Amino acid sequence: MNVRPDANPLSLARRLWAKTKEDNAFNGAAALGFFLTLAIFPAMILVMSVIPYLPIKDVDRAIMDFMAQVLPSQGFEQFRQVIQQIVTEKQGALLSLGALTTLWAASTGMYAIMQQLNVTYDVKETRGFLRARAVAIGLSILFGALMLVVFSLVVLGGVAQGWVGKRFGFSEGLLAFFAVLRWVLIVLALMLAFSLTYRLAPDVENNSFRFVSKGGAAGTLMLVAASIGFAVYVQNFANYQAIYGGIGAVIVLMLWLYIAGLSLLVGAEINFLVERGGR
After folding, report:
1. pLDDT in tens, 115-137
2. Rounded to whole angstroms, how far apart are CA atoms 130 and 141?
3. CB-based burial of residue 233 (10 Å sphere; 0-12 exposed, 13-18 middle, 19+ buried)?
4. What is the model's pLDDT at position 279?
């Protein structure tokens, strides 16, 4: 499949659809949804267990508030129940021997992403099992640190908002500015996460890093738009609790992770077609 970088949008869309079907991206996203379901709770537990050691207050609240906005309410409830007691006290065990097991489990989803991106970029995995796992663990740590940095900035933005508000008044314009600023930081963090994944996860030589790429931007926008739409649908039109009973929240979470996986893969397909010419 050969695609010119200057191909028009309609031509690119046709080739994107063909490449997506060729790589079984929808099945790949389903696999990623499963593995991310297994990995997301250990990952969140590991990240949240570090929070009590940080000198910045309310980082945990910023993370939970964001999850409440992005995830459907039923999926968010799973997070709240699992990690509520994790952030109330310092978890020394999780930061010692238990951290190794938790980190290994958390890297499972990243390892699955690496294998699926190899399919997207039409390459075979040449890294040994231990080396590939080390990359997965390193990426998991990197993204955990990125999450803490971004939400620390969100918290500091809230502190700045309070400082400015006390001196100049809490106007609607001020509140709107800081609300937009928070989402700008979050979107930039998502784009950085996508870019780092596309650069480091697949076994591709001379794979250049681009903070802003067509695939990264498309994947980020797709994830944000799909998450908002899916949350609206679940909250207003679908009653998974009535259909699936007690596991309804897990089903909702897995569907959201499927959307996240599909967004990541579609963005990678776009980068492959546009930047590499599909060769």
Report:
1. 999 998 888 888 888 888 888 88
2. 16
3. exposed
4. 46
